[in-house]
Automatic annotation (TrEMBL):
InterPro entries registered for this protein in UniProt: ATP-grasp, ATP-grasp_carboxylate-amine, ATP_grasp_subdomain_1, PreATP-grasp_dom_sf, PurK, PurK_C, PurT/PurK_preATP-grasp, Rudment_hybrid_motif
HAMAP family tied to this protein: PurK
Function: Catalyzes the ATP-dependent conversion of 5-aminoimidazole ribonucleotide (AIR) and HCO(3)(-) to N5-carboxyaminoimidazole ribonucleotide (N5-CAIR). Catalyzes the ATP-dependent conversion of 5-aminoimidazole ribonucleotide (AIR) and HCO(3)- to N5-carboxyaminoimidazole ribonucleotide (N5-CAIR).
Top-level taxon of origin: Bacteria
Lineage per the UniProt record: Bacteria, Bacillati, Actinomycetota, Actinomycetes, Micrococcales
Protein name as it appears in the record: N5-carboxyaminoimidazole ribonucleotide synthase
Record's keyword terms, sorted: ATP-binding, Ligase, Lyase, Nucleotide-binding, Purine biosynthesis
Residue ranges the record marks as coiled coil: none
Domain ATP-grasp intervals: 105-303
GO molecular function, one term: phosphoribosylaminoimidazole carboxylase activity
Species of origin: Jonesia denitrificans (strain ATCC 14870 / DSM 20603 / BCRC 15368 / CIP 55.134 / JCM 11481 / NBRC 15587 / NCTC 10816 / Prevot 55134) (Listeria denitrificans)
Oligomeric form and interacting partners: Homodimer.
Pfam families in the cross-refs: ATP-grasp, PurK_C, RS_preATP-grasp-like
Similarity comment: family membership: Belongs to the PurK/PurT family.
EC number: 6.3.4.18
Length: 397
């Protein structure tokens, strides 16, 4: 039996468990606490931080490969593991571009990939001058980001004056993450391209999806993204595959994109926003909406197994996140949700309820996008403890 070690005990590691069992793979998961999502479903999951060298070394002992459910793992530790003979996927040379936005922007821009205009903010007295110059060229508002540590809208700020970042500049000068500025792209929607690549170089891509954000957090995903021509769809898939190959990514790669209309030409274009080198929220729909889920595919990829079929199982699939709830626990709503929507696929992460927290998701598939979208939203609303009666129905007479 192959043994795959995973750093991180959140819902992504939790959702690797069913396909691992089906493939006959044994998962060893380093969890942050005994109450974490993955710890509830993985036998004898050791507790420890991703920065704990002893815990990580114990985790990989006897394993065939090490992978991750988040990117916050020290680069030098991974290098040490590789030097000692551990197989690490994705490798630290690739993971660095998901860990550091300045490295990512520099590499993608120099390789000719479509990116927003951007600049690194120096940690010295010239910082305000650089910010003012960038605002003059790309304002009136621009996006400031911390190079490391940001996710789900954290570490991102919209600014319109050079003094809006004074607190971040102080933190950066005191050893905190470096900062960068990006133009505030006028996009019509957000897209996500999910691909997988194994060490042998085989690649596979799922349909491009539309990702709907609320307060900087993914709320819904529509697969495939409505309104793309076959040519546009193929071009975006090839863009994501090129990124995976250029950066030597192994495992699942999510390329988050802005769908932009160029103001000077009126023509659509695609701009890369972020990268994630692991299973991703925009790919949860694949668990029940594709022949091979992103979680099974990630395990196949890091173990250098042949990749699976990524075809969708229905014309439309919608995934709706459950962000916070009025209920003490989401399972309280299960009878009502499953009675109202027997076709719903519910995934609950076992987390303590907190406002805005990702607690689970609902997936629906079908032939009518309006119905599928409405039902997914209504089922997620029930899990949040909201009243949706009467539920959405469509007259098919």
């Amino acid at each position: 039996m192959a043994i795959i070690s995973v750093i991180g005990g959140g819902q992504l590691a939790r959702m690797m468990v069913p396909p691992a069992s089906e493939l006959g793979v044994s998962l060893k998961v380093l969890v942050e606490s005994a109450q974490s999502s993955a710890a509830q479903v993985v036998v004898d999951a050791p507790v420890g931080a991703a920065t704990d060298r002893d815990a990580v070394r114990t985790l990989v002992a006897g394993a065939d490969v090490l992978t991750f459910e988040h990117e916050h793992v020290p680069h030098d530790l991974l290098r040490e593991l590789i030097d000692s003979g551990v197989s690490v996927h994705p490798g630290p040379h690739a993971l660095a571009f998901a860990q550091d936005k300045i490295l990512m922007r520099d590499r993608l821009s120099s390789s000719g990939f479509p990116c927003p205009a951007w600049v690194r903010i120096p940690c010295d007295d010239s910082a305000h001058s650089v910010i003012s110059s960038f605002l003059a060229a790309h304002g009136p508002e621009v996006i400031a980001k911390t190079a490391r540590g940001g996710y789900d809208g954290k570490g991102v700020r919209v600014i319109d004056t050079s003094t809006d970042l004074d607190d971040w500049l102080v933190a950066a000068q005191e050893g905190g993450p470096e900062l960068l500025l990006e133009e505030k792209v006028l996009f019509t929607r957000e897209l996500s391209a999910l691909v997988a690549r194994n060490p042998s170089g085989q690649v596979a891509a799922w349909p491009i999806v539309e990702s709907i954000q609320r307060d900087g957090v993914c709320s819904e995903v529509i697969a495939p993204a409505p309104g793309l021509t076959d040519t546009q769809h193929a071009e975006i898939q090839q863009l994501a595959i090129r990124v995976a190959e250029e950066l030597d990514v192994t495992g699942v790669l999510a390329v988050e994109l802005f769908d932009v209309v160029d103001p000077s030409t009126g023509q659509p274009r695609i701009v890369i926003n972020e990268l994630a080198m692991r299973p991703h929220n925009s790919g949860h729909w694949t668990i029940t909406g594709a022949v091979t889920s992103q979680f099974e595919q990630h395990l196949r990829a890091v173990a250098d197994l042949p990749l699976g079929d990524t075809s969708p199982i229905a014309p439309w699939t919608v995934m709706a996140n459950v962000l916070g709830s009025q209920l003490p626990t989401l399972t309280d709503a299960l009878p009502e949700v499953l009675r109202a929507f027997p076709q719903a696929k519910v995934n609950i992460y076992g987390k303590e309820v907190r406002p805005g927290r990702k607690l689970g998701h609902v997936t629906m598939s079908g032939h009518d996008l309006d119905d599928v979208l409405a039902h997914a939203r209504e089922a997620a609303a029930l899990l949040r403890g909201e009243d949706i009666s009467p539920p959405h129905t469509k007259d098919n007479s």
